[in-house]
Amino acid sequence: MSHLSAQVREHAQRLVELYPDRRSALLPICHIAQAQDGWLRPEAMEEIAELVGVSPAEVLGTASFYDMLYTEPVGRYVVAICTNIACMLDGAYELIEHAMAMRGVGLGGTTPDGLFTLEEAECLAGCDMAPCVQVNHRYVGKLDPEGFDVLVDDLRAGRKELDIPAHGVLCRVEREVGLATRAMGHAGVAEASKAQIGQGSTQGTGRNHLEDGSGAN
Ligand code: FES
User: Fold this and answer.
1) pLDDT digits (tens, 9 = 90+) for 66-122
2) Closest Cα partner for 34 from 26, 97, 208, 145?
3) Residues 4, 12 contacting (CB under 8 angstroms)
4) All domains of the chain in start order, with CATH
5) Hey, is 174 helix, strand or coil?
6) Which of 61, 70, 92, 202 has a CB 3.0–4.6 Å from the CB of 39, allowing a cystine?
7) Ligand 1 pocket, mutate which of 127, 134, 143 (most atoms under 8 A from CB)
């Protein structure tokens, strides 16, 4: 019996068809599997391996390499606090201490209710909002301890649900670009691209061409 839902499997199949080499779909499929469960379960990784034609160990090896993929359970909200130089100078460690004391967890730990996982992060490219905090990879901005408490209350009460979906959900809008690949075949897309380049077409024109595909990915 499949662990991945029919919807996820169907989406995964469409992703596989986008690439000349099916293993190229490994990372995007890991993300949609993670969106289903919040993390990559072993049974999900086995199915992904079968879908892209690699071994489960290769899926695990890839998933464990990337920070955004989790091979162990995490909370509904993964709270990442940057401690690189700009954030460190603006109170990141004080914020981490406050968060640990408030939530009763250490770094990498998850609260007993399964709601929050606390992480220390490298530069999140939000140095202008130091100390920078992300929840489920969404910026929540510069926070002091009081602001952190408000954020936690809002998350717990579900007041941020529209802005911050449960962990694993990267995007709630499915891509459409590239779907022509399925209809035309990869060789056809390559030929069409060459022809457009020959006509001096812009990148935007090429994108529109690809968007003439057959629906959402
Ligand atoms: S140093 Fe913290 S976001 Fe860059």
Assistant:
1) 999 999 999 999 999 999 999 999 999 999 999 999 888 899 999 999 999 999 999
2) 26
3) yes
4) 6-63 (1.10.10.1590), 77-157 (3.40.30.10), 180-210 (no CATH)
5) coil
6) 70
7) 127
- Crossing angle of helices 180-198 and 203-210, in 10° steps, is 150
Write the CA distances from 92 to 52, 59, 139, integer angstroms.
41, 34, 15
CA–centroid distance, 62 to ligand 1, in Å, is 26
124 CA → ligand 1 middle, Å: 5
User: For 123-182, how does the pLDDT look when each residue is reduced to its tens digit (9 = 90+)?
Assistant: 999 999 999 999 999 999 899 999 999 999 999 999 999 999 999 998 877 766 665 555
